[in-house]
Amino acid sequence: MVGGRPLEGTVRISGAKNASLPALCAALLTEEPVRLTNVPEVRDIRTMGRVLTALGAAAEFRVGGVVDVHARQLTSVEAPYELVKTMRASVLVLGPVLAREGRARVSLPGGCAIGARPINLHLLALEKMGAAIDVEHGYVEAHAERLHGAEIDFDTVTVTGTENLMMAASLADGETVLRNAACEPEVGDLAELLVAMGAKIEGAGTPTLRVLGVPSLHGASHRVIPDRVETGTYIVACAIAGGEIEIHECHPAHLQPVIGKLREVGIRIEEGPDNLRVRAPRRLRAANVTTLPHPGFPTDMQAQYMALMTQAGGVSTITESIFENRYMHVAELERMGAHLRVDGRTALVTGPTPLSGAQVMATDLRASACLVLAGLAATGETIVDRVYHLDRGYYRIDEKLRGLGADIERIS
Ligand code: EPU
Question: Is the pTM of the predicted complex or chain greater than 0.85?
Fold first, then answer.
């Protein structure tokens, strides 16, 4: 890609990857078919399709983001290492499979490019619901004739932990209360699907969730929410490249923490019900940010925000409070000319610095997005290696940016 071209035109946002992944797993809770629409055609979704198939469910991917899952009968209770190691979100089958089959065997995910990412809180909570859990040979083995309701206080806000427990509790005996639950819009979207399947859930979107278990769930059809991180990424793309764009089929209400911060640095953002108009400022201002659980500034936008701050006047402090090691993009940005300093969980960005194109590489999804954004601002050619990281979570980011006038091309 070659930077320096302002963006103009319209981009359409895809369905949320992180809402689609738990939704696919929720389909394991019923013998009846579940239809999901607005599912993004990204690699992680395909991987989850393989996890479901390994369990004996039929998952059919149709054009246009329609996925039909039919888990009439499960033929296995195991999510194997080969799949879990490529995608941690595979642990989302633990709750539903255990609740439905009375046992589940899921590979422990291990660390990843952004930190240790344990699942101890998922396991502790399932134990409170009556599961016997052993960790052996790298696998979590969980057993429970029948899960029962429990009072669960999460020590840390965990998104997939909340989702796993919400699914398990939907088929448990009695009431489960989840406290310090994640309030991310993706959790609310999963609750909506579960309720459409017959679950009894109150408080979704708040830190206290009440789930009254039911004996069985039924099929449903559900449209997945738009991807708020993809939306935020295109706002930053416009701000960093210059120009004016329209973002369609998004959900601005889910993006308030991001929109607020991006307005503070000078970006003009006009909100419609399901669209945004974004205008790049002549000059960007530096502003500090700390990532926090929703409704705080999302960690999944931290890397993109750092790329933006390299172009802002002044010093900005970025504090990553969710993951201990989510600065894989820092060294690569420095290779492009950025002035950065990392001290523990805080990064100091001094801008604006002219970026120059370089060959760069990242080891996770959002860090890769950050490098593409930096490439839009850089002079000369930037080559981003290992595009498969981008393909895990962004639907055709190269095509979408090209549609907005960027000079970007997929080499292989
Ligand atoms: N944590 C524990 N123990 C647990 C669970 C979490 O200590 O049992 C810690 C984690 O190590 C981390 C913090 O709690 O420090 C929050 O982690 P969380 O469990 O919320 O993360 P996650 O559920 O594994 C989801 C998203 C991530 C996103 C985070 C935070 C999905 C599939 N993944 O992960 O998305 O960064 O929430 O919002 O929903 C991405 O899309 O690029 C991505 C990494």
Answer: yes
